[in-house]
Write a structure and sequence with these properties.
Oligomer: single chain
Order of helices and strands: HHHEEHHEHEHEEHH
Largest sheet: 6 strands, mixed
Strand content: 5-15%
Number of domains: 1
Mean pLDDT: 93
CATH architecture: 3-Layer(aba) Sandwich
CATH class: Alpha Beta
Number of helices: 9
Low-confidence stretches: 1-10, 279-283
CATH topology: Uracil-DNA Glycosylase, subunit E
Distance between the termini: 41 Å
Helix content: 25-40%
Bound molecules: iron/sulfur cluster
Structural class: alpha/beta
CATH superfamily: Uracil-DNA glycosylase-like domain
Strand order of the largest sheet: 1-3-2-4-6-5
Number of strands: 6
Shape: globular
């Protein structure tokens, strides 16, 4: 198991990624955080994590998927024209939010110029703009916008994560990449289990990725598997009082075409808050 940084990126404007522990706001890792270099490493490190904070740190330095490592770092060097003057995060985007949430929001993967740039999930892209505005209206986020890590935004009784922690080309991870990343999700579910009451899956990919990991952590899931749809609601039949909700992904395409609207998002997150018994008051 490697306990050093492989492919340590350089500092400065041409850096391929932000070095762990170098002062980036909300960076959960340090230069001593062990690096997963393979799917087997992910499995071992995720299983051994002792807290949700340690898990986030481990996720944030993972290098198990060669194609995604190459892509996320290439994007961080080339950058979008409008962000040329910025330093990109260029690392996996870890789970983020409160440490003992009653609600978990599960997305697909970070956006190349969103989370892969800012280092925080759903932060700095159009999907996040729509999502955070809804969370704020529903009393689940402290601010209506999420622009950069360290901007003061925080979630209320809620945590966010992704089925795949690295930005994939065309937003399409392979099955092997999804499976390599799955132990991080299973470990997050296990760590959050005591307080977690509702999981909101943003899109079909997240919905599909969730069920095997719930089973991995010993949850009884409905049979046949519930069908994804906006507002789909599935209560787990076992002794963990947990409900899974489906929500159309607030992607640019879905919001531009009206497939998902502000009202539709608010309806799902309002229902999620009701199920979670989440704190109403904004801190
Ligand atoms: S997608 Fe997941 S498993 Fe693959 S390199 Fe990124 S964090 Fe690691």
């Amino acid at each position: 198991m490697p306990e050093r940084e492989r492919g340590e990126p350089s500092q400065g404007p041409g850096a391929k990624a932000v070095p762990p522990g170098s002062g980036w706001p909300e960076d959960p890792a340090t230069s001593a955080t062990p690096v997963a270099d393979s799917a087997a490493d992910v499995h071992e490190l995720a299983a051994g994590a002792k807290s949700i904070e340690e898990l986030a740190a481990l996720e944030s330095v993972c290098r198990a998927c060669p194609r995604l490592v190459q892509w996320r770092e290439q994007v961080a060097v080339e950058k979008r024209r409008s962000f040329q003057s910025e330093t990109y995060w260029g690392r996996p985007v870890p789970g983020w939010g409160v440490e003992r949430p009653s609600m978990l929001i599960l997305g697909l993967a970070p956006a190349a110029h969103g989370g892969n740039r800012t280092g925080r999930i759903f932060t700095g892209d159009r999907s996040g703009d729509v999502l955070f505005a809804s969370l704020w209206r529903c009393g689940l986020a402290s601010q209506p916008t999420s622009v950069t890590a360290g901007d003061g935004q925080h979630l209320i009784s809620t945590r966010m994560t992704a089925a795949v922690h690295c930005a994939p080309p065309d937003n399409k991870p392979t099955v092997a990449e999804r499976d390599a990343c799955a132990p991080w999700l299973a470990a997050e579910l296990a760590a959050l289990r005591p307080d977690l009451r509702v999981i909101v899956c943003l899109g079909h990919f997240a919905w599909q990725a969730l069920w095997p990991q719930l089973i991995m952590v010993g949850v009884s899931v409905p049979r046949p598997r519930p069908v994804f749809g906006h507002g789909a609601e599935a209560a787990m039949p076992g002794d963990w009082r947990l409900t899974v909700l489906g929500c159309y992904h607030p992607s640019q395409q879905n919001t531009f075409t009206g497939k998902v609207t502000d009202g539709m998002l608010d309806a799902v997150f309002g229902r999620a808050r009701e199920l979670a018994g989440a704190a109403q008051a904004r801190r």
